[in-house]
Specification:
This protein has 279 residues and is an alpha/beta fold. It contains ten helices and 15 strands. The chain folds into two domains: 115 residues, 2-Layer Sandwich (Nucleotidyltransferase, domain 5); 141 residues, ATPase, nucleotide binding domain (Nucleotidyltransferase, domain 5), CATH 3.30.420.40. α3 crosses α10 and α7 crosses α8. This is ROK family protein.
């Protein structure tokens, strides 16, 4: 089975053909974030047209917003507002006469990790995508869990300190709290700069608090971290674990696995895997 997987990100449109968990070369282009719905759809059509061939049997797409479980319409897309209330699935199915599945991008990340990455040996896991914001995908008992309206797992919106979780656990943390770019902090940390390492330790403590909230709600087996800050995981892991270890139920923490994703293109793989039978 060959499936086109599409990752409709906040800034880029990326796609590739997936067969048996193997992703063929990826097509990527900047996304017209402020374009009309017609312009954005034309971009999606153009990428699919590049990849489409007779062996392709389905299309899966991840979007940076909520997907209503009943109507499958896209909601709450901040970076691509023209797609709000658009039935992207129906439009693609009508155009290509292929089955199409659509899901939130963080859910696609978690689903890709569950099938092909760090979550393969677990029945429950949470995928955290830490970039411009904080996205969460939940796999419970081998199935994606999205909730009644598609918004389950949006822990970033939970009130925390004087803001919310996302303010302190996202790539924006470095600029918002320390008035410096995340790329600069990472480069300095690689050089052993103590101030940069202290910033990451602080970030890790906030992440640890977010993980404790997730554990109280879900008691999951595995948490996989992706997004822009995953490369810096060695710098904030200690601060994260320091906070997580005082979780109220130690038997949950003792068997918990937390690691940075090592899977390339988890979102595209997960979008394609939406068509696989849930195990």
């Amino acid at each position: 089975m060959q499936i086109i997987g599409i990752d409709l990100g906040g800034t880029n449109l990326r796609a590739g053909v997936v067969q048996d968990g193997v992703l063929q070369p990826v097509v990527s282009q900047p996304l017209k974030m402020r374009g009309t719905s017609t312009e954005v759809l034309e971009q999606i059509f153009g990428v699919i047209d590049q990849l489409l061939h007779p062996e392709v049997t389905a299309i899966g797409i991840g979007v940076p917003g909520l997907v209503d479980p009943l109507t499958r319409k896209v909601q709450g897309v901040v970076n691509i507002p023209a797609l709000n209330d658009t039935d992207v699935r129906a439009i693609l199915e009508q155009r290509y006469r292929l089955p199409v599945k659509i899901e939130n991008d963080a859910n696609c990340f978690a689903w890709g990790e569950f099938h092909y990455g760090a979550g393969r040996s677990f029945q429950s896991m949470v995928g955290l995508t830490i970039g411009t914001g904080l996205g969460t995908g939940i796999v419970a008992e081998g199935r994606l869990f999205t909730g009644r309206h598609g918004g389950a797992g949006e822990f970033g919106m939970v009130r925390y300190l004087d803001k919310n979780i996302e303010y302190y656990v996202s790539g924006r943390f470095f600029g918002q709290v320390y008035k410096t770019a995340g790329e600069v902090v990472y480069r300095r940390a690689l050089e052993g700069d103590k101030e940069a390492l202290d910033i990451y330790e602080d970030f890790g403590r906030h992440l640890g608090e977010a993980i404790k909230m997730i554990l109280y709600a879900l008691d999951t087996e595995c948490i996989v971290i992706g997004g822009a800050v995953k490369a810096a995981f060695p710098f904030y892991a200690a601060g994260m674990w320091e906070t997580v270890r005082d979780f109220g139920f130690q038997h949950s923490v003792s068997s918990l696995k937390i690691e940075a994703s090592s899977l390339i293109n988890s979102n595209i793989l997960g979008a394609a895997a939406l068509h696989l039978q849930q195990r």
